[in-house]
Amino acid sequence: MQSPITQLEVTYLRTTSLKPDPRNPRVHSDKQVRQITQSIESFGFNVPLLIDDEQKVIAGHGRLMAARKLGWDTVPAICLSHLTESHARCSPTTA
Q1: pLDDT band at 3, cuts 50/70/90?
Q2: What is the C-alpha to C-alpha distance for residues 35 and 11, in angstroms, rounded to an integer?
Q3: Which of 19, 30, 69, 83 has its CA 20 to 30 A from that of 5?
Q4: Residue 62: CB partners within 8 Å, gap ≥ 6?
């Protein structure tokens, strides 16, 4: 049985309103954040953050850190309001 297609909408949210998940299993070193920052400067911010209904980051913690380092006020995000909390924790994308 095929899952229903969810309509995704990219919105631009203030970096200050987004909340990193303190239980995020991935830790980004300063070097990794510098590399992500350089990538964003070179290629743009091409992959939106994934967030929940409370603007908690599900995936994209490193990109959020890089955007803040760059002094950006807003970043693109997709709200995955259809996910349960346990599904959000199991997200395969944790960058």
Answers
A1: low
A2: 25
A3: 19
A4: 26, 28, 32, 33, 36, 95
